[in-house]
């Protein structure tokens, strides 16, 4: 393999030791302002992405078995941490792909899937608290192999093309005045908010199960419909934040009532629509201060905290710039080539 030694450590052609970054390092002022995504940010995304896959796969299993229109899926904070650490380790494996010049198929079709499946077997044994290694069925192997191809060809490749501008909060337009900079495209932000909604609900329901049922497994649940609800709602709330904060100069506590009114209106509207098809996964009828079992003031503190956190997430997303070859394009290429 075309690897060489530089003062001791083994280095592959074109490889950077700091992470996933593949583009040439900028210099001068650009180097200080534009860099690869920080480690904590990648860990955060990997955990959120893993929870999304947990919910998606478990929901599809329930649909096949029970034909449940509520599309309920499951995950837990434990699994979120495991996903973060697992994909961070896989990121390091992915960064060694340049050690296979001229033979990318060996890495993508054999080495990476083998490492990924091995980690999944290990995680399965840890989850079951068993001393015996859990063997995977042929169906599970096929699913894990497909997921390994997705992670290798799409996820890690897309993450390596994202760059972060840590200090940019506002940019001066040519016409004068300040406005937020352009970050990720709208569709990517919608996907991010939808996945983050899964994470929010899994964490929230796992804590409730711990308090109400003493469930130490911290199993949480959500619904695939929540992806559309959180993705669209957070997308609109972000637009409100950008307009009210950067254009009108409104402070946090002045914006907050507008956020809350929109969130409750959106939750009620979506719940009322889903209830017509017996697909609504929540019912607050047993909680005080509820309206038609679709919204309740009991969750008001939670919505306030999430609204405040939404502004923080929006500011972080403002600093993320996509590479000209974006993640969505990579996904289309992977599907066409598959």
Description:
The protein has 338 residues and is mainly alpha-helical. It folds into two domains: 34-166 and 322-338, no CATH class; 169-318, no CATH class. Helices cover 60% and strands 8% of the residues. The chain has ten helices and eleven strands. Strands 3-5-11 form a three-stranded antiparallel sheet. A two-stranded antiparallel sheet has the order 1-2. A hairpin with a 5-residue loop joins strand 6 (171-172) and strand 7. Helix 2 crosses helix 6 and helix 8 (252-275) packs across helix 9. The longest helix is centred in the first third of the chain and has 28 residues, at 39-66. The chain is globular, with a radius of gyration of 22 Å. It starts with a strand and ends with a helix. The model is unreliable at 1-11, 13-18, 22-32, 172-177 and 324-338 (pLDDT under 50). Keywords: Membrane, Transmembrane, Transmembrane helix. The chain crosses the membrane at residues 106-123, 135-152, 256-277, 289-309, 316-336.
List the helices and strands and how they pair.
Blueprint: E1 4-5, E2 10-11, H1 29-33, E3 35-36, H2 39-66, E4 72-75, H3 77-94, H4 104-127, H5 138-159, E5 162-164, E6 171-172, E7 178-179, H6 186-213, E8 220-223, H7 224-247, H8 252-275, E9 290-291, E10 295-296, H9 300-318, E11 320-322, H10 327-337
Antiparallel strand pairs: 1-2, 3-5, 4-8, 5-11, 6-7, 9-10
Keywords:
338 residues; mainly alpha; 2 domains; 3-stranded antiparallel beta sheet; two-stranded antiparallel ribbon; 11 strands; disordered C terminus
């Amino acid at each position: 393999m075309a690897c060489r030694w530089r003062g001791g450590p083994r280095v592959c052609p074109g490889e950077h030791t700091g992470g996933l970054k593949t583009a040439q390092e900028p210099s001068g002022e650009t180097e200080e302002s534009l860099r690869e995504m920080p480690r904590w940010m990648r860990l955060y995304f990997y955990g959120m992405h893993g929870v999304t896959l947990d919910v998606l796969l478990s929901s599809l299993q329930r649909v096949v078995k029970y034909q449940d229109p509520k599309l309920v899926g499951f995950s837990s904070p434990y699994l979120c941490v495991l996903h973060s650490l697992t994909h961070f380790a896989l990121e390091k494996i992915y960064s060694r792909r340049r050690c296979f010049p001229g033979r990318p198929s060996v890495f993508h079709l054999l080495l990476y899937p083998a490492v990924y499946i091995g980690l999944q077997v290990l995680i399965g044994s840890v989850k079951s608290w068993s001393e015996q290694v859990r063997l995977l069925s042929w169906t599970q192997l096929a699913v894990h192999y497909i997921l390994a191809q997705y992670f290798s060809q799409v996820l890690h490749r897309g993450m390596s093309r994202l760059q972060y501008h840590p200090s940019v909060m506002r940019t001066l337009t040519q016409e004068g005045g300040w406005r937020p900079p352009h970050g990720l495209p709208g569709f990517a932000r919608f996907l991010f908010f939808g996945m983050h909604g899964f994470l929010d609900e899994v964490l929230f329901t796992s804590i409730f199960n711990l308090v109400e049922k003493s469930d130490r497994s911290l199993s949480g649940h959500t619904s695939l419909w929540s992806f559309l609800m959180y993705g669209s709602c957070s997308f609109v709330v972000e637009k409100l934040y950008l307009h009210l904060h950067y254009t009108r100069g409104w402070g946090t506590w002045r914006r907050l009532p507008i956020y809350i009114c929109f969130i409750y209106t959106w939750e009620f509207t979506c719940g009322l629509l889903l209830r017509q098809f017996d697909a609504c996964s929540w019912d607050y009828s047993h909680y005080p201060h509820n309206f038609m079992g679709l919204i309740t003031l009991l969750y008001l503190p939670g919505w306030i905290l999430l609204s405040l956190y939404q502004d923080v997430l929006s500011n972080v997303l403002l600093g993320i710039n996509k590479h000209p070859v974006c993640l969505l394009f990579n996904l289309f290429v992977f599907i066409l080539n598959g």
